[in-house]
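for the writeup, i need someone to sanity check this before i put it in the appendix. the sequnce is what the collaborator sent (i think, or maybe the updated version? ugh). structure was predicted straight from it, no edits. if anything looks off just tell me and ill rerun, i have time this weekend
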Amino acid sequence: MPSGILQEVSKLAARVEELERERTAVIRVIGLRHYRNAAIVGYRMDEESSAGFLFYVVAVIIGASIIYLIRKFFKGTQFTEHVNAKGKVIIVTGASSGIGKQIVRELNIRGGKVYMMCRDVEKANAAVRDLAVKYGCDTTRLIVMHGDLANFATIRNFVDEFNKKEDKLDILINNAGIAFYPRFEKTVDGHEIIFQTNYLGHFLLTQLLLPMLEKSEAARIVNMSSVVHRRADNVDPETVESREKFTRYTAPYSRSKLANVMHATTLTKKLRQEDPTTKITINACHPGVVNSEIARNSPFGGSFLKKVGAPLVWLFMKTDYDGAQTPVFLALSKKVDGISGKYFSECKESEVHPLAQDHNACEALYNYSRVACGLNK
């Protein structure tokens, strides 16, 4: 037998002898009967301790399982389809943070060449560095370009520059948006800032890019909307441009998001009327309730409330990456080939506001938008 094992056996034997001597000494002091009674009590205590520990372990496992299932439910549907974006030219607005940044991440990793249209170029460049370091994105296929949706002139400049760089556009994701703006304010173009940023700016961008989208084999447009679009009162110019009807909270935001759904409905009809064989599709979607920067102007955007509510936010709200799943689904999935003019949530078609199915209301919004964006001149 190896010497190492013999040494361990010797140590163990010595320890047994030592314990036996200690047991004998205790019996001499308290007597054999008391010793046996103490041993029985100790055994029972060990049993109770084991049962308590087992209960604790089971409770922890059940609690962790419940938290996991709740978290999984609120994370929502994940886009797992094996489809790449290799060779595709893509534009994503509002791509420097939040959902937009995660959309860029996913499309770039899948092989796409992504133009990031952002108001803050410095912030966008920082996002590119972060995408490369954290996720291994290919920076040669990430192009930052300036464009402010609250300024029509910069949108036109963006399109002019993009047209010089590319000969087609495969995917346009109208993602950028603001909410909870603290006051009524008009842009340099004379429109309420939320309505222009979330809708009119994207309407103009889309219209100007249609010639490039037509050069794609199967172009897709994705309008970011929200489930709160169903709470909008209307999208009449007298309402959306009115100081009196402006509120800091959901009303202006829900109107702009309804307009994005109506845009998808109307543009689908227009394109198919002009060319029944068109390959361009446009759909709108709800990304989910996401813990993103869009809530920075809300009452919950303060640092104190964010810290206090962090556990609940983690449990019940989506991450930016979770929020990117349905937009990416609409951009790439083979399941929506040829589908246009619809509204999706959790990667499936969902219920829309009645105005989105009202032909006259959609036509009125479309005509107003063309005038507001200076496209009828």
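The mean pLDDT is 86. Residues 3-72 form one domain.
thx in advance!!
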